[in-house]
């Protein structure tokens, strides 16, 4: 019996739980949401309201003869749609109208570029069309790459639902450290990085019959490399089909790159956009966005649409989230008779950022019950990768966080930058996908013309390439300049990446991969982390280093809520190991393990359980890779001093020397650096003379994050290329060395010479 027949009148009981009466014996497939007018009959409201929410909590037998009451948890993440609902929503997508033309194109060509507005169904439909049409027969996989982990997972979930398949069976996904596929898998969503790593094992990607390179317009570093790799592969694999999908920007470039590959545009309609600019630049974009949101919410009818706010990252997003809640509470408490359309219970605020990939809630994609407004605060992931229906208002502060590499000083940093015009257009497009919408740009109109680039600079031209160079070398591409890049990276970036790899021992002076380099490439980690793991294994502490590396691969483990910051800081101190943040992380993990990986224990000590849990999973994955490559897992026992030395082996180039009481200078670049206030070393009486750091945070001050005190002799051992000993002081009688002064070596000369050799190796 379908849900349509099974319903009597649904109602919401006082604790927000929906209850409905269904006929006895009817199978509950979907719960229809009430329309505004609750007095209408359920059949009618069912049609008005559309999609379903909730899963069945419990079924109560009613004493009267046939109906039973079914309780639905309206807050549950789980949705159940009828097959008919799903089929209908698929058919409404613009790509459906173009289905037969698309399939013909795919049959006739080996490579093609498909363009469509976001939300037209490229990501969710293309792979399904190919599968249904049997183009990829013979047991070969259909692969679909995504630049972002969060998108890969969420799209796989959606497609599994549409195909009525269990996730991990016919439809699966793979991201770094996580593989949800099986032998049965036919459609595989993955990050572009995963496809690259698969190419290391099988250069010809034999198991794929068809590969969709999705979101190519994003020009992520890995997508660019995948495209170059496929270009080399196409002539060897005549049976392989490659489909590149792109939003409207950049598309022609891909066609040209693949020798005028056919372009196909999915027809779709766009609606007029209304743009409202700030009169002058805003001082605090979080504040401005919050004001704007609250003002929209109180002055418009709720059913006029949902609100999407773009923010740069987790911190901004959380601040915005809290501030909106606070401000709304204020507005409604100050004047309860305030004449607004809406009240505080009528909003639900969602956040999307890519901290932990599993975190994204399915509910973000559902429409809320009538009379409730959705406010979504997201990073630029919501620009094109994820489409949320029902957005009618967009708030765009005009910024995004970008990874920027300064090859001259060899520093990578995450920096908040103005977005490009193409991104601003995409953002405003999110408001007018299904009807006209409004975008509030928190910057003056003149900014668009005067201060914004037309397009974002592709990642390959603004990021550190050490990882990529190591990967290409492992793929046997010795002459990296010969690799077909859509846009070549700056020569200087190449050189400094080669230099970095040479410095940590992955390449020899002629640019060839060393055996250490080969071993490093087996790990899906940045080269310096692979190195410390390998060195630790040789020095009897890989058990501990495995934990440290895993902990460095997850977002912040310490939880610091605004209202309990002091308490949280005090709790954090419990775990401090005086000379090292790396060892502090090890300490946290070890204690968590002693407490049986308990969730409650984490809450008690202000630790993010999910981050720790993730670290544990990553640790398991890395452990498997170690076993496979016969890398010994050995524990140092209670003596942790050797661990610090091993950390130094991978990070000697990221070193700072104390200057004055609490300041440091970067040993290589001479730049002033401060310890981050969250460091275990911060506020210590006697600060160590030399530290290495894991990351630099560039704000008004340059902060070293996650630092470890190191011995100057270790620096000489692992950094002899960079550093010289300037002065050694002895205590006369015993001849014991008491003071060593390390300085940046005769660097320019050394680098020049090396540069010369590396350049030669590129030229050859
Ligand atoms: O890739 P493209 O931007 O062309 O569209 P898509 O991501 O395939 O989205 C097509 C439709 O599926 C949109 O209406 C999305 O809202 C919906 N969708 C969803 O409901 N849940 C997801 N996890 C992903 C997409
Ligand atoms: Mg898409």
TrEMBL record:
Instruction: Give the principal location in a single coarse category.
Output: nucleus
- List each copy of the Helicase C-terminal domain by range: 281-476
Q: Which GO terms describe its cellular component?
A: nucleus; ribonucleoprotein complex
Which keywords describe this protein according to UniProt? ATP-binding, Helicase, Hydrolase, mRNA processing, Nucleotide-binding, Nucleus
Question: What top-tier enzyme class does this entry carry?
Answer: hydrolase
* EC code(s) of this entry: 3.6.4.13
| One GO term of the biological process aspect | mRNA splicing, via spliceosome
Identify the stretch annotated as signal peptide in this record.
none
Q: Which reaction does it catalyse?
A: ATP + H2O = ADP + phosphate + H(+)
Q: What is this protein called?
A: RNA helicase
Its source organism is Zygotorulaspora mrakii
Species lineage, top-down? Answer: Eukaryota, Fungi, Dikarya, Ascomycota, Saccharomycotina
């Amino acid at each position: 019996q379908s849900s349509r027949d099974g319903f009597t009148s649904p109602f919401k009981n006082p604790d927000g739980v929906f209850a409905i009466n269904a006929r006895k014996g009817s199978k509950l497939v979907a719960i229809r949401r009430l329309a505004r007018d609750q007095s209408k009959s359920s059949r009618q409201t069912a049609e008005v309201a559309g999609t379903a929410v909730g899963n069945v909590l419990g079924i109560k037998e009613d004493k009267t003869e046939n109906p039973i009451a079914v309780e639905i948890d309206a807050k549950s993440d789980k949705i159940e749609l009828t097959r008919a609902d799903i089929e209908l929503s698929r058919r409404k997508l613009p790509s459906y109208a173009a289905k037969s033309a698309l399939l013909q194109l795919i049959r006739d060509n080996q490579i093609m570029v498909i363009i469509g507005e976001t939300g037209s169904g490229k990501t969710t439909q293309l792979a399904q069309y190919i599968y249904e049409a049997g183009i990829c027969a013979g047991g070969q996989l259909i692969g679909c790459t995504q630049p972002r982990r969060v998108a890969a997972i969420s799209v796989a979930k959606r497609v599994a639902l549409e195909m009525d398949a269990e996730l991990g069976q016919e439809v699966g996904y793979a991201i770094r450290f996580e593989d949800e596929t099986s032998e049965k898998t036919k459609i595989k969503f993955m990050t572009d990085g995963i496809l690259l790593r698969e190419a290391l094992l099988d250069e010809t990607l034999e198991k794929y019959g068809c590969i969709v390179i999705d979101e190519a317009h994003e020009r992520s570093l890995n997508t660019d490399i995948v495209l170059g790799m496929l270009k080399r592969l196409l002539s060897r694999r005549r049976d392989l089909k490659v489909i590149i999908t792109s939003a409207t920007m950049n598309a022609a470039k891909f066609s040209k790159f693949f020798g005028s590959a056919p372009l196909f545009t999915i027809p779709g309609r766009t609606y007029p956009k209304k743009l409202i600019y700030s009169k002058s630049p805003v001082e605090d974009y979080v504040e401005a966005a919050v004001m704007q949101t609250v003002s929209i919410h109180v002055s418009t009818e709720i059913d006029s649409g949902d609100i999407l706010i773009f923010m740069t990252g987790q911190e901004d997003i959380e601040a915005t989230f809290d501030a909106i809640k606070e401000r709304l509470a204020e507005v409604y408490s100050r004047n309860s008779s305030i004449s607004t359309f809406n009240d505080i219970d009528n909003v639900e605020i969602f956040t999307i950022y890519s901290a932990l990939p599993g975190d994204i809630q399915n509910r973000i994609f559902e429409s809320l019950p009538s009379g409730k407004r959705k406010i979504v605060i997201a990073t630029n992931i919501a620009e094109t990768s994820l489409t949320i229906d029902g957005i009618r208002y967009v708030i765009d502060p005009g910024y995004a966080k970008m990874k920027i590499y300064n090859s001259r000083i060899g520093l990578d940093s995450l920096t908040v930058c103005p977005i490009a015009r193409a991104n601003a257009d995409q953002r405003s497009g999110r408001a007018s996908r299904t009807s006209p919408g409004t975008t509030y740009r928190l910057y003056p109109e003149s900014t668009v013309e005067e201060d914004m680039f037309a397009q974002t600079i592709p990642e390959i031209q603004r990021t550190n390439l050490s990882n990529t160079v190591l990967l290409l070398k492992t793929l046997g591409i010795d002459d990296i300049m010969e690799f077909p890049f859509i846009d070549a990276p700056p020569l200087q970036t190449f050189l400094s990446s080669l230099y970095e790899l040479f410095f940590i021992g992955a390449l020899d002076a002629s640019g060839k991969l060393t055996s250490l380099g080969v071993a490093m490439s087996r790990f899906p980690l940045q080269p310096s982390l692979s190195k410390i793991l390998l060195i630790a294994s040789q020095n009897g502490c890989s058990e501990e280093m495995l934990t440290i590396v895993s902990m460095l691969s997850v977002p912040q483990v310490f939880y610091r809520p605004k209202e309990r910051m002091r308490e949280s800081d005090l709790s954090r101190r419990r775990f401090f190991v005086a000379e090292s943040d790396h060892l502090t992380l090890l300490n946290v993990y070890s204690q968590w393990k002693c407490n049986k990986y308990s969730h409650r224990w984490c809450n008690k000590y202000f630790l993010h359980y999910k981050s720790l849990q993730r670290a544990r999973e990553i640790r398991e994955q890395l452990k498997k890779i170690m076993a496979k490559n016969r890398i010994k897992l050995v524990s140092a026992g209670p003596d942790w001093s050797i661990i610090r030395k091993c950390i130094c082996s991978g990070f000697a180039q990221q070193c700072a020397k104390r200057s004055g009481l609490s300041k440091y200078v970067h040993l290589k670049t001479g730049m002033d650096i401060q310890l981050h206030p969250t460091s275990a070393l911060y506020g210590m009486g006697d600060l160590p003379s030399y530290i290495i750091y894991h990351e630099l945070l560039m704000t008004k001050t340059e902060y070293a994050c996650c630092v470890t005190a190191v011995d100057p002799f270790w620096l000489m051992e692992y950094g002899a290329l960079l550093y010289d000993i300037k002065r050694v002081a002895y205590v006369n009688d015993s001849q014991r060395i008491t003071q060593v002064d390390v300085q940046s070596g005769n660097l320019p000369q050394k680098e020049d010479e090396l540069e010369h050799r590396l350049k030669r190796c590129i030229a050859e």
